[in-house]
Design a protein that fits this description.
The chain has 393 residues and is α/β, with parallel strands linked by helices. It folds into 3 domains: 213 residues, HUPs (Rossmann fold); 79 residues, Tyrosyl-Transfer RNA Synthetase (Orthogonal Bundle); 64 residues, RNA-binding S4 domain (Structural Genomics Hypothetical 15.5 Kd Protein In mrcA-pckA Intergenic Region, Chain A). It contains 19 helices and 10 strands.
């Protein structure tokens, strides 16, 4: 969908929906209403192979700006990714190998294309300019900031108070991200609220290079399916690469408290409709029904209407009518090793916990296992936990 670049109602929606804070808001809105075509920047470090829906929040905001006719500048941080951002970390983040970064970034283009019109995106890698900076240039940029400004950040201060190590390398990250804004001549930077310091670094550095300071649009940080902050390292994400049935089931496993937040920031369902769903929940409607609407919408967004309909029906047949999925994973001996290899279970400890809770059962007989079977006399389908099925062969 394309809007007039000066559509005030649409501009207000872009600057408010799924937005935690706008820095330089007055100047930004004035430029947008004047019809100025702005350069909207987002940087993503390829620290894992998959883009999850937590990262879809700034990408959807980019699409909002793109639909108004602004120029999207998407930076894959193949240089910043090596250094590592500690904005949301309680401990030092290890440096990543360049080979890992290169492997991860290859998968990003197609995933991001599920959200943005990539034919209209200026797509670049920050290694193209950061790796060429001399020590003198780095020194000039570093001279703009003080150590006190860096250690005043809450997560850094907490680490120092706890006696944890903070490396000098970590102090370089905001400078690198800030210089990205100079390199691409950013008018607006999109980020998460945990990125506030890094985004402000760009706004601080740009005047040193004779550029206007960028405005900043910060989005919220959402919880993963387990109620903790969504993070690839925690494994609590809904990845854009998940197959439709897996994505649908993953959404259905999330906490009820986060449904309205997901609907608001991870979809573009009209806010009036979301408000009505929120009202229905407050009046006692089963959260499962609203969650199903969310799951269907997310699968539709990243696949098709048909895939969403099929995933919803598969979920109903499997989990509400007691059926078995059509695509049950077949595993052969040694079963437990294969479960681990295929990442059906996270660890032997998790399996022991499930067995102790009576959460591993034979679909045909209903028998609950206290010890995982080592041998079988015929192919057997097991249910592991609430939503995992395997066929022992």
């Amino acid at each position: 969908m394309q809007y007039m670049i000066t559509d005030e109602k649409r501009i207000d929606a872009v600057l408010s929906r799924g937005v935690a804070e706008v820095i330089g808001a007055e100047e930004l809105k004035k430029r947008m209403l004047a019809g100025e075509k702005l350069r909207i920047k987002l940087g993503i470090d390829p620290t894992s192979k998959n883009v999850h829906i937590g990262r879809s929040i700034p990408l959807l905001k980019l699409r909002d700006f793109q639909e108004l006719g602004h120029q999207i500048v998407l930076i894959i941080g193949d240089a910043t990714g090596v250094i590592g951002d500690t904005s949301d970390k309680t401990a030092e983040r290890p440096m990543l190998e360049q080979a890992t970064i290169d492997e991860n970034k290859e998968a990003y283009y197609d995933q991001i294309a599920k959200i943005l019109d990539m034919d209209k995106v200026e797509f670049c890698h920050n290694g193209d300019w950061l790796n060429k900076l001399s020590f003198r240039e780095i020194g000039e940029i570093a001279d703009i900031f003080s150590v006190a400004e860096f250690i005043a950040r809450e997560n850094i201060r907490l680490r120092l108070d706890a006696g944890k190590r903070v490396s000098l390398r970590e102090m370089m990250y905001p400078l690198m991200q800030g210089y990205d804004s100079v390199a691409v001549r950013s008018d607006v930077e999109i980020g998460g609220s945990d990125q506030r310091f890094n985004n402000l670094a760009g706004r601080t550095i740009q005047p040193h290079f004779g550029q206007k300071p960028q405005s900043i649009v910060l989005g919220p940080i959402i919880n993963g399916v387990d109620g903790q902050k969504m993070s690839s390292s925690k494994g609590n994400v809904i990845a854009l690469t998940m197959e439709p049935n897996e994505m649908f089931g993953k959404v259905m496993s999330m906490r009820d408290d986060d449904i309205i937040t997901y609907l608001t920031v991870c979809t573009r369902i009209p806010l009036e409709e979301i408000a009505e769903m929120s009202h229905q929940l407050s009046q006692g409607m089963n959260p499962r029904d609203i969650k199903m609407r969310l799951a269907h919408e997310l699968v539709r967004m990243y696949y098709t209407q048909g895939a969403a309909d099929a995933a919803q029906q598969a979920f109903i047949d499997t989990f509400q009518k007691g059926g078995i999925p059509d695509d049950v994973e077949e595993i052969s001996t040694p079963y437990i090793d294969t479960l681990l290899e295929k990442e059906i279970i996270k660890s032997k400890t998790e399996l022991r916990t499930l067995l102790a809770a009576g959460a591993v059962s034979n679909i045909e007989t209903g028998e609950k296992y206290e010890i995982f079977p080592e041998k079988i006399t015929k192919p057997t389908v097991l249910k592991i936990g609430k939503r995992r099925f395997v066929k022992l062969i």
